[in-house]
Amino acid sequence: MRIAVIGYSGPIDKDPVKSLEEICVQTGRVLAQKDHTIITGGRDGVMELVARGAKEASGTIIGVLPKGARGNPYNTINLDTGQDYLVRSLVLIHAADMVISIGGEVGTLFEIVTSYAYQKPVILFRGTGGWTDRIAPTLIDGYYLDNRRLTKILQISSIEELMLHI
Amino acid sequence: MRIAVIGYSGPIDKDPVKSLEEICVQTGRVLAQKDHTIITGGRDGVMELVARGAKEASGTIIGVLPKGARGNPYNTINLDTGQDYLVRSLVLIHAADMVISIGGEVGTLFEIVTSYAYQKPVILFRGTGGWTDRIAPTLIDGYYLDNRRLTKILQISSIEELMLHI
Amino acid sequence: MRIAVIGYSGPIDKDPVKSLEEICVQTGRVLAQKDHTIITGGRDGVMELVARGAKEASGTIIGVLPKGARGNPYNTINLDTGQDYLVRSLVLIHAADMVISIGGEVGTLFEIVTSYAYQKPVILFRGTGGWTDRIAPTLIDGYYLDNRRLTKILQISSIEELMLHI
Amino acid sequence: MRIAVIGYSGPIDKDPVKSLEEICVQTGRVLAQKDHTIITGGRDGVMELVARGAKEASGTIIGVLPKGARGNPYNTINLDTGQDYLVRSLVLIHAADMVISIGGEVGTLFEIVTSYAYQKPVILFRGTGGWTDRIAPTLIDGYYLDNRRLTKILQISSIEELMLHI
Questions:
Q1: Judged by CB atoms within 8 Å, which residues 32-91 of A form the interface with C?
Q2: Which stretches of chain B are assigned E, i.e. beta strand?
Q3: Residue A113 CB-half CA count within 13 A
Q4: Distance, CA of C47 to CA of C102 (rounded, Å)
Q5: Are A43 and A148 in contact, with CB atoms under 8 Å apart?
Q6: Interface test with D, best of A91, A97, A118 (most D CBs within 10 A)
Q7: Which of A160, B106, D115, D137 is deepest in the core (most CB within 10 A)?
Q8: What confidence tier does B79 reach under pLDDT thresholds 50, 70, 90?
Q9: What is the predicted pLDDT for the residue at C136?
Q10: CB atoms < 10 A from the CB of A117, how many?
């Protein structure tokens, strides 16, 4: 499968990203070990740490970048979409079969909403802060962003639980 | 100003849209009376009722449509963007100076998030249900979708209050 | 009908635009007189002169702009699509029922090709230079950009001839 | 480098694609041997043959697909952009550092024009028919699509000549 990992951008040596280092690196590693292709927004933060973990496990990581952005050093391939960061996110999400969310500001919220609209299953890695945690209590019946029930949004809180879904 | 109105799609003679008829028609009317150009997603539901109100007050209404969709009969101009409904929404929001939200399912949530990301002020018409109400308690300090505080999301609950902002 | 007019950008008091002033203003005028909505890329050059002619005849002119661009003073409505100038052109062409081309550099060529791909009939105003003239000899059987014959590209060389098609 | 190869779609066992088999397979092979990442539109025709050649030489091939399209079996990674085939082509071209064109109908012309607009160097593989050959005589000073001279469009007519540029 192609699995997108979305979440906080920002420097990896500062919070909130720093505290998520182990979760991110492990997520990348287990995805690669299960031979999934990892797709991210290609830059720093959660994206970089996940890519680092995936690369250690010899995984393939595609960075789907907004116009002119630079990919992190762990991406196997950088794809500069030439578009703004929202259009870039539409392409990124559509390219994935499943989406894992870790922390995240409004860009991550945008991607969670896009995943649901494009009917891509989402896994919220709970306890990682940001919109990954804040969207959870709004879900209808614990799973859906609206009454159309387009796809399920699941919640996990450990790498072990993640492995049951990938 | 160009003011986008977003919200529920669906038949105007059935709930949840039917109960919002007066709010929608009045919103369209006051926007037109103040000489704003109204921009909507162009179809039925809230979009149609707002356009009807605006047309009664001789307003200009632009329907920014997804590929192949048909505009409601009150639009002054229908613009078929040729793109899917999410890309269409990016164009629609970017074209507006301000956004008013009434009820709404995931498409409306997508547009609220896009408005914030593109730094367009949003007015939530509270009490109209859907994501317009559900997004409110998630706002940081009552105004923001994330810590970057890109633009303010305001809340009103009557046409009188709306008129203070337009 | 919604009719897009495409062509040279650039200052209207300098060639190549200056020499096309009469053709552009008259094109705008006759389109407005026949009650067509005029759609352009919204900026200077051919777009501005066509909009001026249309406005003199009380026409409606929509400027479909790339991110952050400023519309010319004759547009009835400016729509900032928020996207780069190529994505903007996809939206502009899709929104039109027919396309008229006057002169033009690579942006105009892009729009002629897009019109054909989206199956929108194109009218080349011959003798106006640029890609409007340069594309003509490449047409298969005088009408088509490729063997799929997706739509006809017609050629005219006067306002009188134009009026037979609008 | 990331090098896009564009050209005819269609069945590989029928002309015009069939006659181009050797050129396409060899192009893919030499690009892979020089460690370039190959980007294509991901489907059949020239795209499939180039991918086959690249795969034989253990290259990495990314197929950038329009919504819902299926990639050919030689792609290393398929990216479904979720967008129509023109928006897809904007992303595909922007992701490349250089573009090689072999034959092609209007989609290829669209991509040649996009490459020039996004300032990506283009190499026309002459003698392969379609727009790759038909665009050549229109070039200003033999290299440019317009007077802005945004990037050079080169012409080659053998694999040996191609190797001088990659």
A1: 67, 82-84, 87
A2: 2-7, 37-40, 61-65, 77-80, 98-102, 122-125, 153-156
A3: 26
A4: 10
A5: no
A6: A91
A7: D115
A8: very high
A9: 96
A10: 24
Helix (H) or strand (E) holding B12: none
- CATH code (residue D32): 3.40.50.450
Q: Which of B60, B64, B27, B62 is nearest to B46 (CA)?
A: B27
Q: Which of A37, A90, A91 sits opposite D77 (nearest CB)?
A: A37
Domain count along chain C: 1
Average pLDDT, chain B: 97
ipTM above 0.85, yes or no: yes
Cα four-point dihedral sign D132, D137, D138, D142: positive
- Here the tokens at position A162 are 């993640």
D114 and C CB contact within 8 Å: yes
Do B134 and A134 count as a contact with CB atoms less than 8 A apart?
Answer: no
CA atoms in the 13 A half-sphere facing the CB of B140: 15
Q: Domain residues for C49? A: 2-165
Are B67 and D84 a contacting pair at CB < 8 A? Answer: yes
- The first and second tokens of residue A94, run together, are 């559509």
**Given this model, what pLDDT does residue A141 score?**
97
Across-strand partners of D155?
A: D124
Count of Cβ atoms closer than 10 Å to residue A47 Cβ: 32
Mean pLDDT of chain D: 97
**Beta-sheet strand order (sheet of B77-80):** B77-80, B61-65, B37-40, B2-7, B98-102, B122-125, B153-156
pLDDT at A40: 98
Helix, strand, or coil (residue A80): strand
H, E, C per residue of D93-131: HHCCCEEEEECCCHHHHHHHHHHHHCCCCEEEECCCCHH
Give the separation between CA D9 and CA D24, rounded to whole angstroms: 12
Helices (H), chain C: 21-33, 46-56, 85-94, 106-117, 130-134, 159-163
